[in-house]
Specification:
The chain folds into two domains: 131 residues, Aspartate Aminotransferase, domain 1; 233 residues, Aspartate Aminotransferase, domain 2, CATH 3.40.640. Helix content is 44%, strand content 17%. The chain contains 15 helices and 14 strands. A seven-stranded mixed sheet has the order 4-10-9-8-7-5-6, with helices on both faces. The protein has a four-stranded mixed sheet with strand order 1-2-3-12. A three-stranded antiparallel sheet has the order 11-14-13, with helices on one face. α4 runs parallel beside α12 and α13 packs parallel to α15. It is globular. It binds pyridoxal-5'-phosphate. The site of pyridoxal-5'-phosphate has 14 residues, from α5.
């Protein structure tokens, strides 16, 4: 490295991360979206991926990806507004708009880009954005990019939200943004109460269904399950999680989507998704439409796992979805817990700050619809091993 100050700064940063057991390394593994992933020559039951419905490996999704690549090649070659558009995009966006019961939809390169696009084109320095404290990092970054005033309300605390809305009642432009399913806690936003409060204060509502779509509301998302979809201005969801592909969408009124096509910089200034991905997404949306029972299956599995955890004295927080955290506290305990599960052949992520608040490090278990009965038995025995191991000791790592 050439600049001395940079060398010093990075050196100190890395040292701090190592001291606090927060140094991240990309794991050496293979087939990370599959039910069974491979690490160090051994197979593990994969409970760390967001491939909740197992669609990434589904025959019709794979075939659609291959067919699209054969038809259109490997790349879109440019941004959508230049020459990056091809026929499949139109089909996918029409399919998504119909699925989400909205006038129009726009596909973007990733969920991260979609949140940046939504917030930076709907909010500016004259806007107040109300945001749940546990919202995803891409929402936090989107608000920063917009230059809006950010008002963070305590997680799922509707009294606090009401007080914040009241305090900013005179602001001329207001947006509320929330995850529907919180990715590290597996709990859900109180969308009924949120839309009611926002309607009273003329606040636009944007909901990120990254972890709700595909699973809740016959695949349409939590807002549909709760019957409040019609009150939401901006529906965002990802295609790289339950849909088993990659990218994201925004659905809403035609004028909203027209505005995003014109104002959303992450859409305008980025190469469009490649054909294989768009083809796969189209097949996945059609599959989920035809098989609305997928979500119920994964939710039933998660309920069974929470029951097992409760019986073992493991804390699953407020989880009510396919994401089941096992909250262990310190980084060291989370890493030890991860090792204990691996000893039994189960792969789950140890999630630590800054992804979750300090002192709430955890294992994040993501259930998936393609687990077999034997997999569930293995998982239960691994959780028993985890509880016993944690009780015995938590070594200083
Ligand atoms: C709530 C939420 N929104 C957005 C994203 C970003 O989506 P993507 O991975 O497609 O960039 C994630 C990813 O984990 C997420 O959990």
């Amino acid at each position: 490295m050439k600049a001395l100050w940079l060398k010093r700064r990075i050196g100190v940063g890395l040292e701090n991360l190592r001291e606090e057991a927060r140094f991240r390394q990309i794991p050496d593994l293979d087939r990370g979206a599959d039910r069974l992933l491979v690490h160090g020559g051994r197979r593990y039951l994969n409970l760390a991926s967001n491939n909740y419905l197992g669609l990434a490996g589904h025959d019709s999704v794979r075939r659609a990806a291959v067919n699209a690549a054969e038809e259109y090649g490997a790349s879109s070659g440019a941004s959508r507004l230049i020459t990056g558009t091809y026929f499949l995009f139109g089909e996918l966006e029409a399919e998504l708009a119909e699925f989400k019961e909205c006038e129009d939809a726009l596909v973007l390169g990733s969920g991260y880009a979609a949140n940046l696009a939504i917030l930076s084109s709907l909010a500016d320095r004259h806007t107040v954005v109300f945001s749940d404290r546990l919202n995803h990092a891409s929402i936090v970054d989107g608000i920063k990019l917009s230059g809006a005033k950010q008002v963070r309300y305590r997680h799922n605390d509707m009294d606090h939200l009401a007080a914040c809305l009241k305090r900013h009642a005179d602001a001329p432009r207001k947006v509320l943004v929330t995850d529907s399913v919180f990715s590290m806690d597996g709990d859900v936003a109180e969308l009924e109460r949120i839309v009611e409060l926002c309607a009273r204060h003329d606040v636009a509502v944007a909901v990120d269904e990254a972890h709700g779509a595909g699973v809740f509301g016959r695949g349409r998302g939590l807002a549909y399950e709760l019957g409040v979809a019609g009150y939401i201005d901006v529906h965002m969801g990802t295609l790289g999680k339950a849909f088993g592909s990659h990218g994201a969408y925004v659905a809403g009124d035609r004028t909203l989507i027209d505005w995003l096509r014109n104002a959303a910089r992450p859409f305008i200034f980025s190469t469009a998704l490649p054909p294989a991905t768009v083809g796969a997404s189209l097949a996945a949306v059609q599959l989920i439409k035809d098989r609305p029972e997928f979500g119920g299956r994964v939710l039933a599995m998660a309920e069974r796992v929470r029951r097992v955890c409760r019986a073992l004295g493991l804390d699953t927080g407020g989880s009510v979805t396919q994401i089941v955290p096992v909250i262990l506290g310190t980084n060291e305990r989370a890493l030890h817990g991860q090792e204990l599960l691996r000893e039994k052949g189960v792969w789950a992520g140890a999630v630590r700050p800054p992804t979750v608040p300090g002192g709430s490090s955890r294992l994040r278990l993501c259930l998936r619809a393609d687990l077999t009965d034997d997999d569930m038995i293995l998982l239960e025995s691994a959780l028993t091993h985890l509880a016993a191991g944690l009780e015995r000791e938590t070594p200083c790592l």
